[in-house]
From TrEMBL, chain A:
Keywords: DNA-binding, Transcription, Transcription regulation. Belongs to the LysR transcriptional regulatory family. Residues 1-59 form the HTH lysR-type domain. This is LysR family transcriptional regulator. InterPro entries: LysR_HTH_N, LysR_subst-bd, WH-like_DNA-bd_sf, WH_DNA-bd_sf. It comes from Microbispora siamensis. CDD domains: PBP2_LTTR_aromatics_like (cd08414).
Length: 315, 303
């Protein structure tokens, strides 16, 4: 039997949970579809659906098969696309996801660097948050991503971890701009503009936990992945933001004392990286270091609480 | 310019609540005029964790036992260097064997919140005796069930650190703070803001014990050295502030009495819990003084 094609039928039935509708979608009659699902069940030695006169439901085995079947079908499709591109003489494509706040210069350097190394391969970039990249990598819609840590995902492999320590962006004239370095605790009571939690769940929680630790609980958090919007809020004195220095008049950048925030990032892919993914990873790591000010992850400095009797426990 | 603080938010909110909110803390408060009973409260009957504030009822029981002849306040007690309850002040921070009188141990316990001194005194008077005293005063929501060592031990057990010296660091982690039993009023030394001001008012009116004992307790509470909490709300030479602080991860407390030059006397109890886990939060400390001043000012509007 053609296992891949049968898994494709299976997936359509799981989406419709109705043999008649699934057959209509596949442009076939219902009896042959039912027959093929039965053949798949025989092949695998399990029942995939509970069928009654009124409804069709997945069995436990069917539920377990869904993600596996999706992966196999997607990978086979991808393989066919790749081969047919080559057969037609089209350039091969590597599909990469990158974070929204990478910046124009870094993006341009990334594309130029990849083009230099692999002029025969087209780089297709999509702007995506970490959560979307993880889903796309696992489903085979991306070949490689640039993820922000911490990430909780099974089934991904990671390249070198790079880190940058964001500073704080303040409005010119803010009293804190008088300091050479700003402590997180100095920001107490301010509003913060930050990337959305939906896009970067791990880094969002990690950043706010570090802020709580450092004495900064924002009065309000305004979420956006639009850099211009964030800078507008900073410029107007409405909120502060974390990040790299911005070349915008009226916005002042100051480093955070003790580098309490560590934003980590690394290339990621599923299963074994192919040669294009390796090339992309090598270029991305180089560009992020040279153009985005990131550095290799070292041993993080141990945070400390200097003892002060008046504020110590049970004082 | 500090935009976060200047937003016109929370208009119409209780002004005491507003002070707490803008300092990033949840607050519990009760203030009472010691002489006419007028009062102001915010969540005043909710249970709160006492932390070191439990040293006030302990001090009272010490004096009551002295009044009954059960102990002599000038009796000298040897406090060996080994196996002391930890802490950053007083005997808890000293390195050598010491011999002090019971009342000088009480001074260290109140002036600098010495944990070693407090545990020596509590083991001497007994926890049950303190609770019996509290029952007799009608303060049944106030309980002393732990000594300082028990509280500190629960911190390092719950924080999951091997060495007690790592506790301070571990307790700035929000995930660790979320599982600390020491922050649950049901499990440790506890009270309510209203019961604490009742206790203080009885001490200031010579009702909690004999007049000489109450005077001795008031003397010690006036010798507390910390300027950053209750006292920070009353930076005036002619206002007297007596108090006892209490501190645990995210908790900052102080109960005390504020005495105005016109004779007005106010017992106030302020308990706070901060969302931030940083140990140094001067705004949260100062909010205790600011909230107390606001509450006392409300009591004085009809003078």
């Amino acid at each position: 039997m053609d296992l891949v094609r049968h898994l494709g039928y299976f997936l359509v039935v799981t989406e419709e949970l109705h043999f008649g509708n699934a057959a209509a979608r596949l442009g076939m009659a219902q009896p042959p579809l039912s027959q093929r699902i039965r053949r798949l069940e025989e092949e695998l030695g399990v029942r995939l659906f509970e069928r009654s006169s009124r409804r069709v439901a997945l069995t436990e085995a069917g539920r377990l098969l869904v993600p596996e079947a999706r992966e196999i079908v997607a990978r086979v499709e991808r393989m066919r696309d790749l081969m047919s591109d080559l057969a037609r003489g089209d350039a091969a494509v590597v599909r990469a996801g990158v974070p929204a706040d990478l910046g124009a210069a870094v993006l341009a350097a990334l594309i130029a660097g990849f083009r230099d190394r692999r002029p025969d391969v087209r780089l297709s970039l999509t702007e995506m948050g970490t959560a979307a990249q993880v889903a796309a990598l696992l489903e085979g819609r991306l070949d490689v991503g640039l993820l922000r840590h911490p990430v909780a995902a099974n089934g991904l492999a990671y390249g070198p971890v790079l880190v940058r320590h964001p500073g704080v962006l303040l409005a010119e004239g803010d009293e804190l701009t008088e300091w050479a370095t700003v402590h997180l605790g100095d920001l107490a009571g301010r509003d913060l503009v930050l990337f959305p939690r939906d896009a970067e769940p791990g880094l969002y929680d990690d950043t706010l936990a570090s802020c709580r630790r450092g004495g900064f609980v924002p009065a309000e958090i305004i979420c956006t992945d639009r850099v211009e919007f964030a800078l507008g809020l900073v410029l107007s004195g409405t909120a502060v933001a974390f990040g790299a220095p911005a070349e915008v008049p009226g916005v002042v950048w100051r480093p955070l004392a003790g580098t309490p925030l560590a934003w980590r990032c690394s290339p990621a892919w599923r299963t074994e990286p192919g040669p294009y993914v390796r090339d992309f990873t090598a270029v991305a790591v180089q560009v992020l270091k040279e153009n985005a000010g990131m550095v290799d992850e070292g041993v993080p400095p141990a945070p400390r609480v200097a003892p002060r009797p008046a504020t110590g426990f049970l004082a | 310019m500090n935009p976060g603080m200047n937003r016109g938010m929370n208009h119409g909110m209780n002004p005491v609540e507003r002070v707490f909110r803008s300092a990033g803390v949840t607050g519990w408060l009760h203030a009472v005029d010691i002489d006419d009973g007028r009062e102001v409260g915010l969540r005043a009957d909710e249970p709160v964790v006492l932390a070191s504030v439990f040293k006030v009822p302990l001090l009272l029981e010490l004096h009551r036992q002295a009044e009954r002849g059960l102990l002599d306040l000038s009796e000298r007690v040897r406090v060996p260097a080994a196996d002391r309850t930890a802490g950053g002040t007083g005997l808890a921070a000293m390195l050598d064997d010491a011999t002090l009188s019971l009342r000088d141990l009480a001074y260290l316990m109140m002036a600098v919140s010495d944990n070693t001194a407090a545990d020596v005194l509590l083991s001497r008077v007994g926890r049950e005796a303190v609770n019996t005293l509290l029952d007799g005063l009608g303060l049944t929501a106030t309980r002393v069930v732990q000594n300082c060592r028990d509280m500190l031990t629960s911190l390092w057990v719950d924080a999951g650190v091997a060495d007690q010296s790592d506790v301070t660091q571990a307790c700035t982690d929000p995930e660790v703070v979320a599982r600390l039993r020491a922050l649950d009023p049901a499990l440790g030394n506890r009270s309510t803001p209203r019961e604490m001001t009742r206790l203080l008012a009885m001490i200031w009116r010579d009702e909690a014990a004999g007049a000489a004992s109450c005077a001795a307790i008031r003397r010690l509470m006036a010798l507390q050295v910390w300027p950053h909490r209750l006292a920070s709300g009353f930076p005036f030479d002619d206002v007297a502030v007596s108090g006892k602080t209490g501190t645990l991860p995210t908790l900052r407390n102080e109960v005390g009495v504020v005495e105005y030059p016109d004779g007005g006397r106010y017992a106030v109890a302020v308990f706070t819990r901060s969302l931030s886990t940083a140990q140094n939060q001067p705004r949260a400390d100062a909010a205790i003084g600011a909230a107390a001043r606001m509450a006392i000012d409300q009591l004085r509007t009809h003078i």
